[in-house]
Amino acid sequence: EEPRNARSRRTREALLMATRELIEQDGFAGTTLAAIAERAGVSHRALYLHFSSRGELLAT
C-alpha cells in the first residue's frame, strides 16, 4: 500500500471511530463535525475531504 493511501485510510478510520465515540457520549444532535475532527486529530479540511456531513459519516 502506498504511504498516501495508508495515511488516507488511517484518517478515515480515525474519523469513523471519533464519530462513534462522540455519538455514544453526546448523541447525534450533540455531535458536531468540529468535535469529530478534533477528537480524530485532523483538520476540518481533512474531514471534509472524506465526508461532507454527519449523515454521511453515519451511513458509512
Describe this entry's structure for a reader:
The chain has 60 residues and is mainly alpha-helical. It has a single domain, classed as Arc Repressor Mutant, subunit A. Helices cover 75% and strands 0% of the residues. Helix 1 crosses helix 2 (33-40).
Q: Averaged pLDDT, please?
A: 92
**What's the structural domain tally?**
1
Distance between the termini: 22 Å
Low-confidence stretches: none
What structural category characterises the helix and strand content? mainly alpha
CATH class: Mainly Alpha
- Got a strand count? 0
Order of helices and strands: HHHH
Features:
single chain, mainly alpha, Arc Repressor Mutant, subunit A, 4 helices
Q: Topology, please?
A:
Blueprint: H1 3-26, H2 33-40, H3 44-50, H4 54-59
Q: Concise description?
A:
This protein has 60 residues and is mainly alpha-helical. It contains four helices and no strands.
